[in-house]
Amino acid sequence: MYSLAVNNGTLSDEQVCDLVHQALADPKLDGQRILILIPDGTRTAPIPQMFRLLHQELGKRVAAVDFLIALGTHNPMSQEQINHLVGVTPEERETTFKKVRIFNHLWNQPDTFISCGVISADEIADISRGMLHQAVEVRVNKLVTEYDLIMICGPVFPHEVVGFSGGNKYFFPGIGGQEVIDLSHWLGALITCYEIIGTPGITPVRRLINRAASLISTPKLCLAMVVAPKTNQLAGLYIDKPESAWEGAAKLSAKLHIQYVDQPFKQVLSVMPQMYDDIWTAAKGMYKLEPVVADGGEVIIYAPHITEFILFHEKYDTDN
């Protein structure tokens, strides 16, 4: 594994650049078609920096370097939003990055998926420690079959469904089908957010996601980022197979992103950033703080910029 991390401060641009260069120097990558999974605008990470670095390292060596936004079931991003996400101007998209394609994950269009197989009910029972006993079909965006390498480039934070985000979570729910999304979230709900958020190690939900990802036959590489608190700069970067890169990043995230208090609070004011444009996503302001709220206490979500409870979502078409 290629990695750099600091417990205090941030990595320099030169350090990040050198690490990415070392990790991608393998001549076996030459001539390959590479698809890079990135988060949407609801995640904090230096995506513009990584977008330029990856294009710099791969653009002239590979047959294709394209990006797929792992929306899960979030709304698709406009071209203006995409340009902001990756930090380029419309002119640069037409010149410097003309050959780079950036796709939205079309989660509501069944014909954009393929089936990778089925996880049996008995295995689900084992993974879930007996909480669930049902088979689940594993579907994923069919673009993964059109490339030689899938590269995950996303941050790792404490997460209310899986324990810590990142890694194979960019497949499920990132670009995955309804079946694993629903099952993983139900499993997380049974465990409860209070118990699972920030839990170190492999939680049952992480086991389910990793097992589903193992059915995707295309080779995978992960750039797991740990963002320094109160910045958009990296405190750590781990580059390896998704499972091991995520594990290293999660350990650092646990040190940097979890704050312990001496006693719970009766009232908490949670101020939402501009990246959340509806209450559905801004609900993170509640469940990320739930563990420090006293019994009978309350969380006040302060988000004067939000005007929608939930932005319009097209329903999954389950008839096809």
Q: Can you lay out the helices and strands and say which pair or pack?
A:
Elements: E1 2-5, H1 13-23, E2 33-38, H2 47-58, E3 64-69, H3 79-86, H4 90-94, E4 102-104, E5 113-119, H5 121-127, E6 136-141, E7 149-155, E8 158-159, E9 163-164, H6 178-191, H7 193-196, H8 204-213, E10 220-227, E11 234-240, H9 242-256, E12 265-271, H10 279-282, H11 284-287, E13 293-302
Parallel strand pairs: 2-3, 2-7, 3-4, 7-10, 12-13
Antiparallel strand pairs: 1-11, 5-6, 8-9, 10-11
Helix pairs in contact: 6-8
How would you characterize this protein structure?
The chain starts with a strand and ends in an 18-residue tail after the last strand. The radius of gyration is 19 Å and the shape is globular. 29% of the residues lie in helices and 23% in strands. The protein is built from eleven helices and 13 strands. It is of the alpha/beta class. Strands 1-11-10-7-2-3-4 form a seven-stranded mixed sheet, with helices on both faces. The model is unreliable at 314-320 (pLDDT under 50).
Features:
single chain; alpha/beta; seven-stranded mixed beta sheet; two-stranded antiparallel ribbon; 11 helices; globular; disordered C terminus
Fraction of helical residues: 25-40%
Mean model confidence by pLDDT: 93
Silhouette: globular
- Structural Rg: 19 Å
Poorly predicted regions are 314-320
Got a strand count? 13
Query: Largest sheet, order of strands side by side?
Result: 1-11-10-7-2-3-4
Element order, helices and strands? EHEHEHHEEHEEEEHHHEEHEHHE
Give the termini distance in whole angstroms.
42 Å
Give the biggest beta sheet.
Answer: 7 strands, mixed
Q: From the helix content, strand content and strand pairing, which structural class follows?
A: alpha/beta
In DSSP terms (H or I, runs of 4 or more residues), the helix count works out at 11
Task: Quote the beta fraction.
Answer: 15-25%
